[in-house]
Fold these 4 entries.
Entry 1:
Amino acid sequence: MHELAHQWFGNSVTPRKWKDIWLNEGMATYAEWLWEEEQGGRNTDEIFEDFYDGTDSESEGIWAFPPADPPRAARVSDPPVYGRGAMVMHKVREAVGDETFFDILRTWTRQHRHGNADTGQFIALCEGKSGKKLTKLFDVWLFNKKKPSRM
Ligand SMILES: [Zn+2]
């Protein structure tokens, strides 16, 4: 499922800079979560909690750095980019609702088809589609160095 999702998030829409790679890996990881729910496993809220609590086997090391700010090139494929990237997607979905969230994903892959895109453009699209200011959400879940407290 992860690699299938990369057809759109990573292959068709390519990151502008390496710091934008969370957009690919976060969404491909989130696709795994959506698929697990679809198959009757944990739902995405439960998977989010398992990542937050560290009980999911793939959550190890996710708090090492913010997903949109790997400290150096060698770390762009480290757990925060994947696990915390997926958590950002889940938080956006919670904030904007399912209809707007999936509209954002379809619009993103359509607007940037066979091109490059970056984090600022994704945030702008989320805010534009939802009509909500999402600065705090992205500050806390995407850019914050520390593990966010429960909100
Ligand atoms: Zn991947």
Entry 2:
Amino acid sequence: MHLPKAELHLHIEGTLEPELAFALAERNGVTLPYASTEELRAAYEFDDLQSFLDLYYALMAVLRTEEDFAELADAYLARAAAQGVRHAEIFFDPQAHTARGVPIGTVIEGLGRALERSEESHGVSTRLILCFLRDLSAESALGTLDAARPYLHRISAVGLDSAEVGHPPAKFREVYEAATALGLRKVAHAGEEGPPEYIREALDVLGVERIDHGLRCMEDPELVARLVADRVPLTLCPLSNVRLRTVDRLADHPLPAMLAAGLHCTVNSDDPAYFGGYAGDNFDAVREALALGPEQLRTLARNSFEAAFLDDDEERRARYLAEVEAYTFD
Ligand SMILES: [Zn+2]
């Protein structure tokens, strides 16, 4: 769907399509344990979180140079633009790369190179969000933020991702305080697999401004009331929820109930190469499976721009919002 929208929940490592993975593997002399793009494409049909993570981390081995990261981001931005994305706030996981011996500067400068030419190349404005892997230690997160200091001009916010259960937000209090002191905005994954309490902790202990996923708030009416009253944006990823079995079928997704409750929902793609589609595909899928009407779809798009970190460019936000109002559905 070409409805103008902002993508607010997108892991750049999760946009690596099989064709690019093979091209980069060849260029960098990395041997992938797959004979062909077809065989690799078949591996993308995983059926649980662990097989997804195994594949996800195995394929990262092909990303070595600044040029690799720039190509990855450029390919995503081209796809996103073709599906109506006008603004993208992009997550990256520096620890997944530094652990393989790739310097953080290579990652950030490579991504930054693609992002800084994105408006001209694709008509998409961008922000970059540095995420900490929550299954690693708080010390590792602090070290990562420290290593990113020379590149802060390229970074708008920090986030928290990877395996949620057993790694509550409070574990990262100190690094979020440090990020606040550096003037960075804050988001965190919470309430995808973890309990509603993790959403509260992300708000109260980490001071986040948006919750990534947040689905499980629906188990806690008091929390829902608070999220509505404070207009806390939730970055939902419907196709991801189905692939990772957070919901059984898209038709069971709580999005309509969440919208009806007045929650500030947005629709995003998470790891689109792996989860069956980009932002526009997610909009198409929920429109079909949940019978969302034009006004609900328009609300989702409006919400995405309202939740975007565009406070330093309100003129642009207003322009995007006007595009949403002017859009005609087919
Ligand atoms: Zn995510």
Entry 3:
Amino acid sequence: MMEYLTLNTGAKVPVLGFGTYLIEPRDTKQAVYEAIKAGYRSIDTSQDYYNEKEVGQGITQAISAGLVKREDLFVTTKVDTDGYKQGKKGIEESLSKLGLDYLDMMILHWPRRDDLGSYQALEEYYHAGKIKAIGLSNFNIAQTKKMIEQTEVKPVVDQIETNLNLQQGKMHDFLLSEGIVHESWSPLAQGAQNLNTNPVLAKIGQKYGKTGVQVLSRFLTQWHVMTIPRSISPEHIKSNFDIFDFQLTADEMTDIRQLDQHRSQGGWPSSMQVDA
Ligand SMILES: NC(=O)c1ccc[n+]([C@@H]2O[C@H](COP(=O)([O-])OP(=O)(O)OC[C@H]3O[C@@H](n4cnc5c(N)ncnc54)[C@H](OP(=O)(O)O)[C@@H]3O)[C@@H](O)[C@H]2O)c1
């Protein structure tokens, strides 16, 4: 059974969703359809992934097949433009490519020169009811504070790199204190770490009949981190979703917290390192 987090708008959001970064446009429609069929209700894309159109097609196919209603989905995309004017144009394009009347959430993909202008565009669509929740991604504590102080609508999430090696404890506590949901990107470190052979995860997994990947996703979701693993494998799509029939003990949560190395998987611009 899916679990939910409550955004500071009062809206409920599934704690586990489906990521679509690096999914080729030709694979995206099917992957999104498979994810919805497997039970995912939250889908994450971006203007920067060049697959919004195909994400929209997967959603349309799932709705047409009677798998889900639009109002039961939580669709997120991200702003890849800079400033107010370009922001508005980009929002219109995202709505059009996704084929949706409204977005459940739209977030600034990363800090740029004119974040206040970009955010103002999001606020305008939020007030018009065309975007139900707005937020941030890759903003550190100082950058997030500035947005809170200088904008009208408080961000609902900050989506930041968060996985076994980079758990973002400081950001987590800061976001919690501000009533902003901590959302993880690359929860599986892009498949780079062999999570299924990590001895701590494997030992815990043995107890519950789960893989290391499932234990890690359970850890993140139980820590109230919104988590959006990506996969094009139907088998992984299903198993990544199968994490709600067990609970980690407080000791197991602590054991996994202790595996934090405060280390990014790397390869990302320094502006995206927010372990502070
Ligand atoms: N805001 C940002 O700046 C930002 C940056 C990066 C990502 N994101 C978001 O976060 C989402 C997730 O991050 P990500 O796409 O970077 O990577 P990820 O979810 O951490 O990892 C995806 C990789 O893990 C593999 N995988 C998935 N399930 C598995 C399983 N059960 N066992 C073994 N391997 C498995 C996938 O391969 P298979 O396809 O073979 O399963 C894929 O290679 C993205 O899709 C995107 O929506 C946001």
Entry 4:
Amino acid sequence: MESVILYGSQYGTTRRYAEALGRMSGLPVHNAQHKPDLAGCRLAVHLGGLYAGGVKGLKQTLQALPQDARLMIVTVGLADPADPANVANIRRSISLQVPPAVLARSQIFHLRGGIDYSKLNLMHKTMMSLLCSHAKKLPPEKQNAETRAMLETYGKQVDFVDESTLDPVLAAIREALS
Ligand SMILES: Cc1cc2nc3c(=O)[nH]c(=O)nc-3n(C[C@H](O)[C@H](O)[C@H](O)COP(=O)(O)O)c2cc1C
């Protein structure tokens, strides 16, 4: 596998993006949490759902990736990536998850996923309930894209998945492979 798409997804929105990117690019798609063999891999595109800032499955991808391989990280979250403060937050948190040398040769993209509260497991339901009751108490000037997205969608089913937002990722893959 010289080039591969990997994903970390709990509820399926990230997997949908990864599968769409696989169809668009012709690259094979694997669940990062199944620890695929990445020996000989030159380019890995990792798509991961955001969970309290962590990129799902990225740890497993980083463990398996050869040292000199190129990495693209694509985050999928509820908060709007059109908000620069949200992107800055996500990047700050990625810098804590990825070694500096790997980060220096990585490209990072941000997409919007979705949430269906009826499908959340008990731990995630409890976490969201605690986070929302804390966010509700914040004055508006202290709320950010993350807290706003959480409060606006709390208890609902929302789906912001838009395959056309994969276009910049596809362009970067084509450039890397040319
Ligand atoms: C417990 C929990 C924590 C979350 N943390 C974040 C977050 O930090 N930032 C964000 O933008 N979205 C956050 N989300 C929303 C998910 O990133 C979003 O639902 C995403 O589409 C999930 O991907 P998946 O369906 O592939 O698992 C969180 C959702 C849950 C349930």
